[in-house]
Structures are given as structure tokens and as C-alpha cells.
Amino acid sequence: MDFSGEVLTSVHIQTATAGFCDTEKALSRRQSILLLGMMIGGAAVSAVPAHAAPVGAFTSPRLTVTRYGQLGKNGRDIMFIPGLASGPSIWAGVVRAGLAGHRLHLVHISGFAKRPAEANARGPLLQPVTDELARYIRENRLRTPAIIGHSMGGTLAMMLGLRRDIAVNRIMVVDMLPDGAGMVGGTSAGLGYLAGQLNGYFTGTKAGRQVLADMVARSPGGRDSDPRVLAQALAELAQTDLVPRLSRLSSPLEVVYAVPADREMAAEQARRYRAAYAKAPRAKLIGIGPSGHMVMLDQPARFLRTVENFLR
After folding, report:
1. Which residues, in sequence order, are bridge partners of residue 149?
2. Which of its termini does the chain have fewer beta carbons within 10 Å around, N or C?
């Protein structure tokens, strides 16, 4: 799996965070690199087409939603949630395709991809954002929408599916494991505490803030995002394990994962995803490759076909 910013993160961890705390030494060099650089897409993306409709009076200090298309007789409302440091532009290929008859709701989380951090600048992130997404669904009277989330957006999609105050028709998770720390080969039990400590260092100390700001500025996928929001998101993802709750997901779940070009790595990737989602009663796994983490950009035609089939 391709996570951008890897070399840069390694250098900064070794030079700037050495000696930060004894616990940090327990984390392997590889996990340190991936924990701070994971899921920050580095690829350039095209702008989303401009023919968007305003979304009523809904406002939130944690996110915005832009709507595309008209809901046809047999169409669905579809919410697209981007991942860490990404904005709605990662879905440009899907939006351009039209998905005739469906109405698309593109989420932009505050603090990512040039959007000001606002309320996301401090405190918890994942649960408050999930609460606002659920409020959007209720206030706009979306009846059993489909939810498609990439990376961190996949975690948010599953969190929405686990709620009882809204009804979700189906969920697609794109290249994300239910235990966020599993993306770097760890577990929330093993890495969660350390992630919290690193978050405190990067956001609570002058030296840490400078290190994080420098890393973000040099990482193509993160330079337009707020370092405070990135640090909080990474910490919470490493601490979030949805595996024990997968059996409670009543909506159909489709998991699209990136398949590396290397045959052995591809086989291992398939094994990891099968094991991770084994407790989800209605899960369907689809591998797309060769691809890095940004499946919709690396394999746009195949990803679009997968989305179209998912909506049937």
C-alpha cells in the first residue's frame, strides 16, 4: 500500500522526536513512519465539476456538503466522505460520470484540503463529525442513503451505519480496515496509547507543532490541511477499533481495497481484509489493483464500475 510522505516522516521522527518519550521507542521505525504519514494522499486531483446545488439551510462548523444531480424515480441519495487530508475533488471522476438518477452529496471536512478547521481545531473529531453527518441526513430528509467513504471516510461511514437515529441503505468502505491501527500493521490496543501521546506532543508543545507543521508543509497530500486536525485524526484512527461492533452492522457492506502489484503482497492484503471483516455478516470484499491507497485515482474506470454495481 502506498502512503505518501513516508521518507520525510522517517527523517523527522528520527531527528526531531528522538527522546520525546520512552514509549515512542517501543514503536518500530516502520510503524512510526506509517502512523504519521498514513492515508495522506499525495496525488494531484482534478476539480469537481461546478454544477452544484446549494444544500438548503444546513450549516456546520465541522463540515460542508455540496449536492450534485437530481434524484430520479429509482435513484438513491449517495453521501461521499473523503479521507484524511482530502476534499471532495477525489470523487471528481464519479461526479463527471453523472450517475444518472442519483443525487450525490459530497462532504468536505473542516481542516482538510484548504477548508478552515473551525470547530475541528480542538477536541475530539470522529464522533462530532459523525454526529454532524447524521444531522445532515436527518435535516435533509435523506431516506436510507448509500454511504461511500474512503480511508478515514470509511471509518465515518461505518460509524454512521452503526447509529440507530438514522437508516443507511448500504455502505462502501474504500481501502480502510475497521481497526485503524491495522493500516500500519498494529492494533488499537497496541498503538492507541502511543498515538495519543504523539498527538499531545505534536499539538501541545511548541517544538512538536513546528515539527508537524514542517512535515505537513512538505507532504503533497497534507500541505493544504490543518496540522492540528491531521494530528487529532491520526490519533483517533489509531485508537478506534470497530471490529467488535461489525456484527451490529445491518446494512450491506462492500469493502473495496487496494491490491499491490506484487503477488505476495497482494495475497497478504486479501488475507488481512478477509480476517478484519470476518465479523461483518453482510460484507462483500472487492480488490482493485494494481493500486495504491487512492483507488479512485489509480484505477478510475474500474472504481466507477464498482460504484455503479454497488448502487444496483
Report:
1. 81, 173
2. C
Cell of 206: 511548541
Q: Where are the domains of the chain?
A: 6-41+184-239
Asked if 41 and 221 count as a contact pair (C-beta separation under 8 A), the reply is: yes
Q: In whole angstroms, what is the distance from residue 40 CA to residue 223 CA?
A: 10
Read off the C-alpha cell for 166.
438514522
Q: d(Cα 16, Cα 298) in Å, to the nearest integer?
A: 33
Grid cell of 148 as nine digits: 461511500
Instruction: Using the Cα atoms of residue 183, residue 188, residue 194 and residue 197 in order, give the sign of their dihedral.
Output: positive
> In 168-178, which positions are buried (b, 16+ CB within 10 angstroms) versus exposed (e)?
bbbbbbbbbbb
Q: For residue range 233-249, what is the model confidence (pLDDT) as tens digits? A: 988 988 899 999 999 99
* Residue 290 cell numbers, joined: 494494481
> What are 217-233's pLDDT values in tens digits?
666 667 789 988 988 99
